[in-house]
Write a structure and sequence with these properties.
The protein is an alpha/beta fold. The chain has 11 helices and 14 strands. An 8-stranded parallel barrel has the order 7-8-9-10-11-12-13-14, surrounded by 7 helices. 35% of the residues lie in helices and 17% in strands. Helix 3 runs parallel beside helix 11 and helix 6 crosses helix 7. The protein folds into 2 domains: 66 residues, Phospho-2-dehydro-3-deoxyheptonate aldolase, domain 1 (Alpha-Beta Plaits, 2-Layer Sandwich); 252 residues, TIM Barrel (Alpha-Beta Barrel), CATH 3.20.20.70. The radius of gyration is 21 Å and the shape is elongated. The longest helix is centred in the last third of the chain and has 18 residues. It binds phosphoenolpyruvate and manganese (II) ion. Phosphoenolpyruvate binds next to loops.
Length: 344
């Protein structure tokens, strides 16, 4: 259950609602929004109490409506927040018609590698440099990333080249530290339901890109976004990166293109698509990247490596700078073909 306050509700009115909730032995979660405050009740409410509570709260001063939550998320929903969210980082805007490309290597490997990649992606028109310093690898024997040293390199290169950055954080205890180095925190597919990590990222005040876990439903994914939003962080974007495939003979995952219009209809959060992990082979990446643009994605996250054959992780799916530049030109062409519907 959630209590939605009027836009001009006072602090006293909010407090009075909280006290009524507590008087029934329930917990409350005050969620100050851009426009109005919502008060969630994260406790299990006994069925006999529901109608009483509904009636009492609905009649209180400052209360707009009492909502019975049938989906596992509310703040992430379009019905709660009809306007599309627009994220602003420096001069870059994401969502609400603003399209962004985040590109770079899977992992920071060295200063030289990252600088070469950063110059190439920036030159081709990417606004954000992606590169992992903490790599969640299936095998503990695989390259785990340069970790703190990788973040140092990322920051130096970003400043030299003049580009924003995104990098993954995998440990809740590292969130504050990683947030000092990057502009956007990436929550990886394997961490989508690491709830302490979501809470920490929500509290960081940094924009967060939340990847969909390979087996997660849309509702589970949006419920994870809800963990970020309930901490007061409104700068949340979602990233579709492929779900479990029927077989892996031809593709690493199955990019769920359906997720793009479904998220746009059911949520106000920007939806970014990662075709690199979605299909897993560089030769197919441009085709699905363009499909995502045509489907209405708010941005793309693409792996680009100056020398894919030497990459320490995900070389097979990394575009060369030349292939990326060609794709960027095609992205512009697709977006222009769709204009004016999406032009910003
Ligand atoms: C990545 O972006 O390099 C990554 C590890 O992605 P995912 O979490 O989608 O597997
Ligand atoms: Mn990768």
């Amino acid at each position: 259950m959630m209590v939605l306050m009027n836009k001009d509700a006072t602090e006293e009115q909010i407090q009075a609602v909280v006290e009524v909730i507590h008087s029934h032995g329930l917990k409350s979660l005050v969620l100050p929004g851009g426009e109005r405050t919502a008060i969630g009740i994260p406790s299990a409410i006994p069925p006999s109490l529901r109608p009483v509570l509904d009636e009492t709260l609905s009649a209180m001063d400052g209360v707009d409506q009492v909502i019975h939550i049938t989906r596992p998320y509310k703040l992430a929903s379009r019905s709660f927040h009809p306007q599309p969210t627009e994220i602003r980082i420096g001069d870059v805007r994401i969502g609400n018609g603003h399209f962004v490309v985040m590109a770079g290597p899977c992992a920071v490997e060295s200063y030289e590698q990252l600088r070469e990649a950063a110059l190439a992606v920036k030159q081709a028109g990417a606004q954000i440099l992606r590169a992992g310093a903490y790599k969640p690898r299936t095998s503990p024997y695989s390259f785990q990333g340069l970790q703190r040293e990788g973040l140092e390199i990322l920051r130096v290169v970003a400043e030299e080249v003049g580009i924003l950055t995104i990098s993954e954080v995998i440990d809740p205890h590292d969130v504050e530290m990683v947030a000092e180095y990057v502009d956007i925190l990436q929550i990886g597919a394997r961490s989508m339901q690491n709830f302490p990590l979501l809470v920490a990222a929500g509290r960081s005040g940094k924009p967060v890109l939340l990847k969909r876990a390979p087996s997660a439903t849309i509702d589970e994914w949006l419920a994870s976004a809800e963990y970020l939003l309930t901490q007061g962080n409104e700068q949340v974007m979602l990233c579709e990166r492929g779900i479990v495939p029927i077989d892996r003979t031809y593709a690493r995952n199955t990019l769920d293109i359906n997720a793009v219009p479904i998220i746009k209809h059911n949520s106000h959060l920007p939806i970014i698509v990662d075709p690199s992990h979605g299909i897993g082979h560089a030769r197919y990446v441009p085709a699905v990247a363009l499909a995502a643009v045509a489907a209405g994605a708010d941005g793309l996250l693409i792996e680009v490596h100056p020398h894919p054959e030497r990459a320490l992780s995900d070389g097979a799916q990394s575009l060369t700078p030349a292939a990326f530049a060609q794709l960027m030109a095609q992205i512009v062409a697709v977006r222009n073909a769709l204009a004016p519907a999406t032009s910003k």
